[in-house]
Design brief:
- Pfam families: Acetyltransf_3.
- One of its GO terms (molecular function) is acyltransferase activity, transferring groups other than amino-acyl groups.
- This is N-acetyltransferase domain-containing protein.
- This protein has a single domain, classed as Aminopeptidase (3-Layer(aba) Sandwich).
- It contains six helices and eight strands, in the order αββααβββαβαββα.
- The chain is α+β, with helices and mostly antiparallel strands.
- It has an eight-stranded mixed β-sheet with strand order 1-2-3-4-5-6-8-7, with helices on both faces.
Length: 231
């Protein structure tokens, strides 16, 4: 049965890579007017690495930029574990339709036209060891400034909230665009302060940076403290 499910999922991913949306999808396959979201898979690794290795996606935390393909592979592994354990993990975000190039936000530079099926980013609501979901997203700069982050985050949050786990998001105070997205989709600021160095070996040190923590509900003090300590 598991093999049959994997085959069906692979077929869905193959169709969504071409901008097609199947008539009937499992709950983990999400769609909006412009986007198709499917569970992150090994086949996405190269495209995900290209986005996470792009300095343009790390303007607010340059030290976080990925430098090895293995980091994207680890993202897929963590996502698969989260899907198996809690029913939600990470999604690959793809365009359903061609996206004409638009001027990059704050500049007069022309944007890059993107074809239907292009992987433009990742949305995430993985389950952390502390018992809360870590919500976030990262999109290629070529897709910024036209509401795609809010569009993807809205449906990803709704899927994450289908379970009982609290949904939380950590963001740098110096990243107002991401703050606005979190506020727009309905998350509430529950903490603001200086971060601490992350406990994970690949977590950039953030001790000197002001961070904000958002959540979809009030958090117990012990849970909030655990999330603060993540950096």
């Amino acid at each position: 049965m598991r093999g049959a499910q994997l085959l069906r999922d692979d077929r869905r991913r193959a169709s969504w890579k071409h901008g097609e949306v199947p008539e009937s999808s499992a709950p983990e396959f999400l769609s909006t007017t412009r986007l198709a979201l499917a569970p992150l898979a090994a086949a996405d690794v190269a495209e995900v690495h290209a986005i996470y290795a792009d300095p343009g996606t790390w303007l607010h935390l340059p030290s976080g930029r990925h430098t090895a393909l293995a980091q994207a592979e680890r993202m897929v592994e963590e996502s698969e574990q989260s899907w198996a354990a809690s029913g939600v993990g990470r999604w690959a975000i793809r365009l359903r339709h061609d996206l004409p190039g638009t001027a990059l936000p704050g500049t007069a530079l022309p944007g890059t036209a993107l074809a239907a099926g292009t992987l433009i980013g990742v949305a995430s609501a993985t389950l952390m060891d502390c018992g809360a979901r870590n919500f976030g997203y990262r999109l290629t700069p070529a897709s910024w400034g036209i509401g795609l982050a809010t569009e993807a985050a809205t449906v990803a949050l709704a899927a994450a909230q289908a379970s009982a786990y609290p949904v939380t998001a950590r963001v740098l105070a110096g990243n107002p665009a991401s703050v606005r997205v979190l506020e727009r989709i309905g998350l509430t600021l529950v903490w603001r302060g200086q971060g601490v160095a992350g406990t994970a070996s690949d977590q950039p040190a953030t001790a000197a940076l002001e961070r904000l923590i958002f959540a979809d509900r009030p958090l117990e003090p012990d849970l909030l403290a655990a999330i603060i300590n993540l950096g």
